[in-house]
Write the structure tokens for this entry.
Amino acid sequence: MPALHDSLRSLLPPDRVFTDPARMAVYESDGLTAMKALPGAVLVPETAGEVIAIVRWCVEHAVPFVARGSGTSLSGGSLPVADGIVIALNRLNRILEVDPVDRVAVVEPGVINLDVSRAADRHGLHYAPDPSSQTICTIGGNIAFNSGGAHCLKYGMTANHVLGVKAVLATGEVVEFGGRSREQVGADFTGLFCGSEGLFGIALEITLRLLPKAEIFHTVLAGYHSLEAAGNAVSAVIESGLLPGALEMMDALAIEAAEAAVACGYPEGAEAVLIIELEGPVEKVAAEREQLAAILAETNAFETRVAANAAERMTIWKGRKCAFSAVGRLSPDFIVQDGVVPRARLGEALRRIGEMSVETCYRVANVFHAGDGNLHPLILYDGRVPGGLEGAEALAGRILEMCVAMGGSITGEHGVGMEKRDYLPAMFSAADIAVMKRLRHAFDPGELANPGKMFPGAEAPALTTHGLHPLEKAGILSRE
């Protein structure tokens, strides 16, 4: 890499090319701080043209690259490659268009998630996916990992709200997938790009679907004396036919952390709380709130609190949104896991996590999207203690294996990244993984884009012929 620094510096002004280790240290990890790697250089483009030029430089010199937004990935998904390039996209942060007629927004990858809703607000619209990190995470990163959020139960994941993508592939080719229409013909390359964890290339412009803002919200905080009772309440709500905008759960340890951080005023003595939010037309919510109140009474919620106004609603949500970072008040280090279990087995999963916690002597705080069974166990450890990290990682692995054994998934919204790549074979067959690799090589035959992520091992890809569509090269798509 040092021999290439001169030609690298020619791509951007000197103040936007970092090769000094002290300046690059900021980029050596993402939200999974247990894993670190110092890149060969960090480049900070400000336009799509500059991103394309950098990618094509990497292709010419066979240098791996990693695209990065705010670095909030919790799976090591934006971990740099040693001696590779980090392409920092935060300055591509323009909202290019908000169209209230078509109900779309066209944005660059460095736009902050919440800023899309802020821009759409004056039109009575909003952008539905709302990860906990929505005040800092970027749309480009949301696309890479198909992020969800508290309201994904009703509205779906990022992939359900991305209509089109203009991207530079890892070959340097610029492509456009999808468009502005919700009705599209042919293979869904936009959906394929969402959740690809940066293994195909870099999004340059994204067309997002906007939705009308709800007419009214009904937000309820319910306290339970046991996790099992709270889990039963989740099942009762879903089985009743209600489809809340959000259905979240936190256990006692997570509540303790949130109270210490933001004094959110959750019920004292609760072993678990549910946050249930109904939203929609006034008449519909009026009927649903009575149904919800009856369910909470039947499931023995010892305290229920209804937000009387927007300020109280935000206070309830503040505790949930800050939960991950708040756990830092209870432990010097922690791992955020991201598995999924069927809703019907939620109570069993929580019980088994509790048993594993006692058995291993690692405290575990549970925060999760209860409505769709997406667990977020936070495993507390002290990295200064020999073996502390290794023990926490082993417990995280056991939780993932439990999720798969229950018929669930190793990831709900955080992606596989570096953290969970060795668990991919527990969920997918060798044939499944082989197809995934063929797809990856169709878009990135040299494995230059975010290498080392998602797949166990590091097999060298076979070179493919030019002149065909990428999926034809891989033998996956035929024009016959």
About this structure: The radius of gyration is 23 Å. Confidence is low (pLDDT under 50) at residues 459-480. The longest strand covers residues 201-209.
